[in-house]
Write a structure and sequence with these properties.
5-stranded parallel beta sheet, alpha/beta
């Protein structure tokens, strides 16, 4: 490959500068190294690099936050079109992910692999922000993950493909029905642990009495029905991925037991005394705002730090409307085969109304509606009248129709939606706070805190 382009390497480690310089001479026309980040502005204007490989941490400090992110923003101000790749240690992977949100095209973890560094920097120079994939691969569901082509999901995919290959703990958040478990399985598939098991556990379904036995296992005779030794989820996920779904539903008392196991990196079976080392990659998911729960005293802050090395937010279907027609086609094909229907076509009027619907239940709700339409329709063309669209009656306000309420919530933040739901519940329950808390599935104290926060 003929060398082309100019590369600027900024790192205060002279050995790193020397090794990267020697490696990249064969791939770039010119390579410049820089040990002092304070010289970045002047060097940018003079050297005009196509790519900047920027270290995340230097020996000096910047009051405005992490120095690498500070200089990333400065580079993008001076030369917005220059591709910036972040150079980071494993402990700072989360900062690198934040850097990608601020305009970096990629990151490389130290100690680096030569081939990977060449590939990433070459891709950045050639203007490709992610590995080249065609449209079909974005829509491929052979592995269970549908990415689509919306900007929000393409951005998420880029980050997932970077962080999956690390061992960093990941917290996936998003509304119900957005596909959090599918994303967790995709992370495992892309990880270096993909030859190991992926073990999923619903944390909200674990009772106080079953918690330790299910997660840590038990020995024979530990309790009445313990007729044999039993391995827990931690052991089953050895050398693989442990996926803890609905982590926000775990009681405060059980959170302490989980935290202890994650900190110690070993478990002890119920009734036993042998410490068993565990080697797992932890991925958690929730539809709850854990930061707000920490503020309300419902979730341990130290546990949140432990599970939240990398935070991935899955956008709602309302934030990726351009993917809705593809989802509909996908589900139409799936259920046409399942129910022995001939090939189906989606009419334009149906496509229009499906795209405009807010889908508060997200992908899961859309799939249910499409399945019902496939079952109930007579012809080979699905029209708007064939779809039984949701009305979201639980969000109704006095004097407003269900559809008005649902469609008026498009584009709102989760906080806005939560405020609207609390307000609607207050109206429906005539201000009875006990009934409001019961309807919303939260404690009275949490309700008091939210009423104060939202000024209701």
């Amino acid at each position: 490959m003929k060398p082309k382009g100019k590369l600027l390497v900024v790192d205060d480690n002279k050995n790193v500068l020397l090794s990267v310089n020697m490696l990249m001479q064969s791939y770039f026309n010119k390579v410049m190294t820089l040990a002092l980040p304070q010289q970045i502005p002047s060097v940018l204007r003079e050297f005009q690099p196509d790519v900047v490989l920027l270290d995340m941490n230097f020996t000096t400090s910047i009051n405005s936050g992490n120095e690498g992110l500070f200089w990333l923003r400065e580079i993008k101000k001076i030369m917005p079109d220059t591709s910036v790749v972040l150079f980071t240690a494993f402990a700072d992977v989360n900062l690198a992910v934040n850097g990608m949100k601020d305009g970096a095209v990629d990151f490389v973890v130290k100690p680096f692999d030569n081939n990977n560094l060449v590939e990433v920097l070459s891709r950045a120079r050639d203007g490709r922000k992610e590995p080249k994939v065609d449209k079909q691969s974005n829509s491929d569901t052979s592995n269970g993950m549908f990415w689509g082509d919306s900007p929000a999901m393409l951005k998420l995919r880029t980050i997932v493909e970077r962080v999956a290959k690390t061992d960093a703990n990941i917290l996936i958040t998003g509304e119900n029905g957005t596909g959090k478990e599918l994303l967790a399985r995709e992370i495992h598939r892309l990880s270096l642990r993909n030859n190991g098991p992926m073990v999923a556990v619903d944390m909200g379904a674990l009772t106080e009495t079953l918690f330790e036995s299910e997660l840590f296992g038990h020995v024979k005779g530990a309790f009445t029905d313990a007729k044999a030794d039993h391995s827990g989820k931690f052991e089953e996920a050895e050398n693989g991925t442990l996926f803890m779904d609905e982590i926000g539903n775990l009681s405060y008392q059980l959170q302490a037991k989980l935290l202890r196991a994650l900190q110690q990196r070993y478990i002890t079976r119920v009734g036993g005394n042998k410490q068993i080392d565990v080697n797992i990659r932890l991925v958690c998911a929730t539809n709850k705002n854990l930061q707000a729960m920490v503020a309300d005293g419902e979730f341990r802050e130290d546990l949140l730090y432990r599970i939240n090395t990398i935070h991935l937010e899955i956008p709602s279907l309302r934030e990726r409307k351009e993917d809705i027609p593809a989802f509909v086609e996908l589900f139409m094909d799936k259920y046409a085969k399942m129910y022995n229907r001939s090939s189906l076509t989606l009419a334009d009027d149906a496509k229009s109304i499906l795209v405009s619907c807010p889908w508060m239940g997200n992908i899961r709700e859309l799939e249910h509606v499409v399945e019902k339409a496939v079952i109930m329709s007579d012809g080979n063309i699905l029209r708007a009248a064939d779809f039984d669209l949701p009305t979201y009656s639980s969000l109704s306000d006095k004097g407003a129709s269900n559809s008005d309420i649902a469609f008026s919530m498009q584009g709102q933040t989760l906080e806005d939606m939560e405020r609207s739901m609390i307000k609607a519940a207050m109206t429906e329950c005539d201000g009875n706070l006990s009934l409001v808390a019961q309807q919303l599935g939260i404690s009275r104290q949490t309700l008091y805190n939210k009423l104060k926060r939202y000024g209701l």
